[in-house]
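User: I'm preparing a small set of examples for a lab meeting where we compare how different chains pack in three dimensions. I only have the primary sequence for this one, and I'd like the structure in token form so I can line it up with the others. Please keep the answer compact; I'll paste it straight into my notes.
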Amino acid sequence: MDKMINLRIHHFYDILRSFGQNKKIKPHPHLHSFHKVAELVRHNPNLKIKITISCDSICENCIHYKNGTCDDLITHRKDFSSKEALNNYIDKRIMKKCLLKKGDILTVRQLCEKAELYLDNIEFIYSGNDLGHTKKRKNNVIDGLKYYNKIMVKNKKKEKLNKGEIIIYKTSQKEIELRVRLEKETIWLDAHQMAQVFNIDRTVIVKHIGNIYKSKELRKKSTCVKIAQVAADGKIRQMNLYNLDMVISVGYRINSQRATQFRIWATRILKQHILQGYTINEKRLLEARNKFNQLREIINFLQQKSKAKLLHGQEKEILNLLANYSKTLTLLEQYDKSKLETVRGKKSKFILEYDKCLEIIVKIKKELVDKKEAGELFGSEVSHKLESVAKNLYQTFDSKELYKTIEEKAANLLYLIIKDHPFVDGNKRIGSFLFVYFLDKNNYLYRETGEKKINDNALTALALLIAQSEPREKDQMIALITQLLK
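Assistant: Understood. Below is the structure token output for the 486-residue chain.
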């Protein structure tokens, strides 16, 4: 969906909160558009939202929306003159804690990933409000996230079907030509397409389908799916698609020559598809075996490093790293159960700039020096080494990037800053912070559940592991970090 809306950040979390309350969102007496925007958010995880700190898409048509501001009075906070002043105050606090700024454009899915930061700081954000009310708000938002995660899972399944392979069906005499959907190892047609294939009125097709379900010859759940399609009038409507089992059943009832032709064509196409799939799975099994061997190397590596003096006290975190990494073992089991999917890295859109890194390091140094946690040598660069690290992330060979994915770039960023010592002091802390900054700017710091892919304790253990590792062990360290980010 290409549409974009303007939204105040507190309104977004109010929407999640309303989902968690499990109540129908009705039009409000103030005539604002909260219910309409909530429905947009509910059904479109990829909806783009532009962060604003003024009246937004919800405020449209509201009786309190006048001259670009809200004139609604406030009743529960005497320390603010108006609701607008309180909302501005809350928005700025949320943006500060969620690392957002006015004008940022994120999808609903990406804002959900920011929810952990919102929830961790909710008492600060709403300081001055009743604590019981704030706790209730927090629980509602958590429930809203659980509800929305279920919606995103369902939408992913629909998106997968919507993006299914399209193949062209033509009769030998070229009387008809159809764009047929191939997904889940079967053919999918709607009633209009079946009518074209069988050269019969659509109403007859619909009647046959109804009778097939009524006689329980086929089950609707396993032979029919709904997808969103753009109709001739430009509106999005739900449309039923039926798989090959249904098409054949309808074809037998009509018993036309065209039905036989289509059945033969579909059988041939599916056979080709399954054979291709077998070849791909053979390749995936080989990849799984390679990962299994890599896993054994990582286990040996972590066991060896856990005995080092520098890592004393980090045994638990190393064990957790091993547990997370060992999920790779399920690849072989997934192959046996025909569930194996190739995990591909995500390409990075954000460019880490050297000058920006220097600005960030200056800010970190000031905060740490003020806390007496760093000295004057912290962050002092050695011979532009950091610049070399930043450029190294985007180096190319034969016009192709050597590090193609976010995972590879992030892992090499952390490793190179710690191992190449571009600073006189503070390499592990600076490397860890820039690692988090890079992931966050790529909207890759959090999982869909809202938890960090690598939490603070795990990151500390990783930094120490890198510092303790030998140069020949670089590939193992990079493999460990990239796998933890997937």
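A couple of notes for your slides: Confidence is low (pLDDT under 50) at residues 277-281, 315-343. The longest strand covers residues 236-243.

User: Perfect, thanks.
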